[in-house]
Amino acid sequence: MPVVIVGLALLVAALVFFFITKPALDKKAALESVPVKDAMKPAPNPAPAPATPASPKAMPPPPAPAPTPTPAATAPSFGFARPLDLGKEMTRSLAAEDFARAGSLAAASDPAQAAAAAAMLEKMVKQLGAKVGGEDQVEILGLVENKTRLALPLTLPGQPNPLRLQLDLERDERMGWKITRLELPRELAAALPAPAMTATAAAPSPTPSAPATAGNNTATKASSAAPAAVPGKKIFTVAEGSDALSFGSDFVRALLRHDFTEARKYVDEKKVPTERLAGLCIVFEEGRYEFKPTKPLIITVANPEVSWVIAQVQSPSLQQSTEFGLELQRSGLDQPWRVVGLNLSEILGSYAASASKLGVPYTPIVKNPSGGESLALYFEYDQAQLHPRAQKQLEIVAGLLKSDPGKKLHITGHTDAKGTDDYNLRLSLSRADTVKKQLSALGVSESQIITTAAGKAQPLSPNQKADGSDDPEGRSKNRRAEIFLDF
Fold first, then answer.
1. Among 60-64, 87-91, 110-114, 371-375, which is the least confidently predicted range?
2. What does DSSP say about strands 373-378 and 236-238: parallel, antiparallel, or unpaired?
């Protein structure tokens, strides 16, 4: 019996091989033997079989062709390697009235809004007469929340002061730098027609379940009169006033121009000593500082009423880069910003370490022995003549005193430890009188100036080293006259 079962199994296996497996292998071998060129040819059509009529429901409609994307819905590949390159391209596009290009640049983060952005920019230039400045006037304001902010200058007919079109940029790994937001100046945005502003707002669009009909064709007419608003991020905003970054930039630029009078307008003088501001102007002029070209300002704290800003500057003549801090504050969202704090430790330290390259000793701001801060002017050994670079310091002080005859200042002369006490008292008084005479020559009334002599009694630095030997550098810091502004 087992032999019969085994025999039947072998018979079944043989039948499977000859009738199923072998034909399949032969077919595969035949296909593999055909050249590739021939294998790609279509097989001859078999004789057509009689067609069987099918019901309309059984025949699906042919697929609709895929819609070709419009330029506004296609994300462009701009490839800007630097923020300034993008700002300059926007400037060129507006100057050439290539509004389609400008709109594509403006809406790079939301290409569906390119047409609306182009329409707004065209109205800004053609209807309102706004003229964009040259490429060399595009400037980087700084860094806010990981976005780099650029400013493009604009002028309007009849307005002498330029406005700013501000662009927030961020880095895209695929397309380089792109614009994520544009801020229109308030003076310009207020004059724009309402459709231009609503065209860039995130307005709701009709849902598929609620198509436009005769009952709601008002929206259809509106969309034909102006570029349709589309859902998405709001790429245009309106400046409600000077933001912290722009305010800080304007303040530092006034200092870099050595315009002390203009810089004072930005400061809360109850919280920022005048000596600090005057000393910073002096440092900027003597060190010939300028903004660093990349990230000149960085917002480290950005609250509605308090902001901290780091200003980064460089001095080619001193071959150094340094920074200082600004604390900005305002009493309400509708109130202007004011500088309420200046942290100068970094820039003053860098300047003092490098000032010898200009032949100017040390920092112009020092701690006053009686409290507060003073402006310091330095003298050569055993001399009472002013250093040529002290002239600018005294011009700033003279301007302060002449603006208010009721103000007074105290000048105290100092010496190093060399010489007798009597000699040093006379020398220190002579140094104070030299400063007084120069201020009088600049138009300051002598009744506003009080001079005293301290001799060697109030050194800023040790006259001797720890081992008792002479310290020439320390003594050079003590040969000075301090100006204390008593107001």
1. 60-64
2. unpaired
Give the β-pairing of 139-144 and 147-155.
Answer: antiparallel
Decide if 38 is inside a domain.
no
Q: pTM of the entire structure? A: 0.69
Are residues 351 and 393 both part of a single domain? no
Mean pLDDT to the nearest integer, 186-214: 45
- Is residue 100 located within the same domain as residue 234? yes
Region 408-427: mean pLDDT is 94
Please choose, from the candidates 335, 312, 328, 438, the residue with its C-alpha nearest in 3D space to the C-alpha of residue 387. Answer: 438
Within 8 A by CB and 6+ apart from 158, the residues are none
- The band of 279, judged by pLDDT with boundaries at 50, 70 and 90, is confident
- Residue position matching structure tokens 């964009």: 132
Residues 155 and 263 in one domain: no
Map residue 462 onto helix, strand or coil: coil
* Cα–Cα distance, 103 to 126 (Å, whole number): 15
Q: Is 5 exposed, middle or buried (0-12, 13-18, 19+ CB in 10 A)?
A: exposed
pLDDT at residue 215 above 50? no
β pairing state of 338-343 and 408-413: unpaired
Contacts (Cβ under 8 Å, ≥6 apart) of 267: 251, 277, 338, 339
